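Continuing the series of single-chain predictions for the mutant panel. This is the parent chain; the variants come on the following pages.
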Amino acid sequence: MSGNRLLPTVALIGVTAVWGVTFVQVQDALELYPLFAFLAVRFAISTAALLPFAWGSLRRMPRDGLKAGIAVGVLLAGAYGFQTAGLELTTVASTGFITGLYVVFTPFITLALFRTPVPRAVWAGVGCALVGLLLLNGAPGGSPLGNALVLASALVAALQIALLERFAPRYDVRALTFLMMATSFVGFTVIALALGQMEVPRGATVWGALLVTGLFAGALGYLVATWVQARTTAARAAIVFTLEAPFAALFGVLLANEVLGWPGWLGCSVMMAGILLAEPAAATALRRLAPRRS
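Parent structure:
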């Protein structure tokens, strides 16, 4: 692989590593700071960081594009809300691998919404995912309720990805990303205020998690991922994205002293096999789904 082709892949691996370590940071921060307040401040940082890049294209965005960005933003907020609530209850490794199941679910969402055929490899991936999920529920420190919340997050994320694949070719990606972040910020702020959770963040643990998730994993991560996906194939990018799950497990063991035991590690391995089976086929199905620019 030449240097020009290697650089996007290396950059994307770096992004997935940052995404993996944030599971540990968020779990630590949630012990000190309320859930919805954390999400509100996180997306406030992402929104502010993206504004300079998106302002020009946002002003030219048609009304339909604004509606699309807000709709996808509501789904993004739902995915993060379920995921973060689940992370409070279950392990970092379980959260990382179950989150990765959006890869498996997305083609079935597109089948239901747009009649896009589901490749056979994805069916095999679903079987592996279900077996892996059952094994993860028996891992030390795991929580069936927490795992169920993260599973709901993966389903909502799959719906968000399917709709975004529909909208992204029609509208400016920077404006869409900004609208998703801003919608999530507004939604979580309203929830945090209603629950009386809003308070000023304090301490290095909380601020460290907010800055890494809001700036590096959020705004910068999305910009790098967009830049990479313009320079590599969808299948290659999709496979690299699956590294988020093993990175989460690795950092959970190294930084959070998690012990998965043999059921947990076997479950992670089976689930990773399912994700890798489904990923190239899922990317192909989504490329057929997305309308081309004229």
